[in-house]
Amino acid sequence: MARIDLEHIRHSYGARPQSDADWALKEVHHTFKDGSAYALLGPSGCGKTTLLNIISGLLHPTEGRLLFDGNDVSTLSTQERNIAQVFQFPVIYDTMTVYDNLAFPLRNRGVAERDVDRRVREILEMIDLSDWAKRRARGLTADQKQKISLGRGLVRSDVNAILFDEPLTVIDPHMKWVLRSQLKLLHGRFGHTMIYVTHDQTEALSFADDVVVMYEGEVVQIGTPDELFERPKHTFVGYFIGSPGMNVLPVSVEGAQARFGGTAITLPGKPRTPMGGAIELGIRPEFVRLGREGMPVQITKVEDIGRHKIVRARLQDHEIAAIVREDEDVPAEPHVAFVPEKINIYAGSWRVAFEGESERTAA
Amino acid sequence: MLELRNVSKTVGGEEHIRDVSLTLGHGTLNVLLGPTLSGKTSLMRLMAGLDAPTSGTVVFDGEDVTGRPVQKRNVAMVYQQFINYPAMTVYENIASPLRIAGKDRATIDREVRHAADLLRLTPYLDRTPLNLSGGQQQRTALARAIVKNAGLVLLDEPLANLDYKLREELRAELPKIFAESGAIFVYATTEPHEALLLGGNTATLSQGRVTQFGPTIEVFRKPAHLITAKTFSDPPLNTIVLKKSGPVFQLDGGADLPAPAALAGVADGNYTIGFQPHHLFLRAPTPEAVPVQAKVTVIDITGSETFIHLVYADARWVMLAHGIHHFDPDEMIEVFIDTRHLMVFDETGRAVASHEKLAA
């Protein structure tokens, strides 16, 4: 396993990048710690697959260097980088048995047959295909084939890193839960450096130690799931993480108070720096309290999704979403109030830290 | 109204659809929910007339249309893959069914612009589909289905290939678009969460059978059968097998527990109890909640919530807890089962008491 350093990596698919828009990756400068699990999360076109392909060697960056454990691998081929990859769609040998498919990467490296057998059986168990070991891969369902692909990615323990490109897209929801928790167990046991590309927030948040949120060719925030949830650094992170995303309202700020329309809203503290750009208040639907206190709203829709309800309402000229628990009622004359310590303030879409906030959460 | 009466479909000796009867009304949204290969697409093909049933009848607005091919039916379909005419503009793509129907130019223009407006495609009418994002490509396919003004619109996992957030957006818009047209909408998905967000009615499918059909939230809350409860649960439904003798529940591999008052009248015997991940708690929600000791396997933190994977006796459970909680793998913790929301199934899997009754 290896530490991976990305040094000022930039990439353009065109020959002569001139404007900002020509860069598929504007600049990424970051270290992936040895033995950690990362998710690259963002909408299509954000640059996450470009970044993964640079790490795997399928792409050579226009600028910058890539180091594995301090050694420059920028010019090495995918093969020379000694990594395992799992793609969105199954990549397996149809004519081989399930067992031989899993054994292939090990036999290729001349691993002793006894060790091959032990390892393959372990993986078969994990992907729940032990009973299918002797069957040929042809004729298996798409998700069984994808499980073999995952297994092949995990079968070698001597790789520098394992890279996953949306590996669970073709897997049924129930199997996703099983595979995700097994991936996680496996990571805990073997400590592979894992990088996992996805556009699915649940997958990213539940898989990774740290989630790298990307937007328009840039990393906008790297953080643990709770940091991304509680302190989105950019309104895009607030929107992209969480379902529904964070509510964003235009406000003005004076001291430790925000003003929305005619209403004063108490903030968790005084914003630390003077602010330029449009000032906005961000509050997650989970922290909007619906009751008889606060600002009056008109409810437009209540979506009962079983474990909770999503209440959509108009607050002055703005749409606002609130989450109400299963056994809570929606009041007749509804008002909304915000949990003060869960409010974030944004200037020009970037979060402004409050005075007295610790460096870690401010970062 | 679309009626399927005892419809079955056998292909090469394999039963793809088994004795399905369903009645779908105009202006309704009907979700077909089930895992891959449960029969969703096969059922849609029968509804559309792409396939003829092996037995049973298909009736549309009182008329027997069994075996009538899709070309002679007024049906629109949208698939998981984005299917558009690549050489035509978005405008022409949307207009194509109207041109085939021989509509005049003014009508075509009016309807194309209306559909484009509804699906927020107005700025892209002059582009070709491959110059659009995936979301816009699928909006184009949806707009074409809308202008077709079909009595039956079949959507086969239409959002599956889209980004998470695009899905959220389009999913919120779809019911509004549906409501306006008055057509019968059928929407296939593998995801319980998607069915709940869409609302309407849901038919749960398992191995070619419809196991239950009714208003979505009711099917979710009151599954009549264990298989329906399992199909309609993500993360997977928590279950435990137990034996009731008199006032005591003997948990499989665990301690004896007093039977909740509401279950006191249930006959002695073996039962399977089912409960949702959010009905397991770290602190007792009511004094009646049943405490059990379970072993932690994995923790998934999603920001606002934590999924705690547990092993209890031979059962694997998932708990959905509010907030952020850290536990070590293999740690034994005490968790509480909320007895107000239990689903109880007999040995054949049939529900003996819905949690609604238990709560009463």
UniProtKB/TrEMBL annotation, chain A:
<dbReference type="Pfam" id="PF17912">
    <property type="entry name" value="OB_MalK"/>
</dbReference>
<keyword id="KW-1003">Cell membrane</keyword>
<dbReference type="InterPro" id="IPR003439">
    <property type="entry name" value="ABC_transporter-like_ATP-bd"/>
</dbReference>
<keyword id="KW-0472">Membrane</keyword>
<dbReference type="GO" id="GO:0005524">
    <property type="term" value="F:ATP binding"/>
</dbReference>
<dbReference type="Pfam" id="PF00005">
    <property type="entry name" value="ABC_tran"/>
</dbReference>
<keyword id="KW-0813">Transport</keyword>
<keyword id="KW-0067">ATP-binding</keyword>
<keyword id="KW-0547">Nucleotide-binding</keyword>
<dbReference type="InterPro" id="IPR027417">
    <property type="entry name" value="P-loop_NTPase"/>
</dbReference>
<dbReference type="InterPro" id="IPR003593">
    <property type="entry name" value="AAA+_ATPase"/>
</dbReference>
<dbReference type="InterPro" id="IPR008995">
    <property type="entry name" value="Mo/tungstate-bd_C_term_dom"/>
</dbReference>
<dbReference type="InterPro" id="IPR047641">
    <property type="entry name" value="ABC_transpr_MalK/UgpC-like"/>
</dbReference>
<protein>
    <submittedName>
        <fullName>ABC transporter ATP-binding protein</fullName>
    </submittedName>
</protein>
<dbReference type="InterPro" id="IPR015853">
    <property type="entry name" value="ABC_transpr_FbpC"/>
</dbReference>
<feature type="domain" description="ABC transporter">
    <location>
        <begin position="4"/>
        <end position="241"/>
    </location>
</feature>
<dbReference type="InterPro" id="IPR012340">
    <property type="entry name" value="NA-bd_OB-fold"/>
</dbReference>
<dbReference type="InterPro" id="IPR040582">
    <property type="entry name" value="OB_MalK-like"/>
</dbReference>
<comment type="similarity">
    <text>Belongs to the ABC transporter superfamily.</text>
</comment>
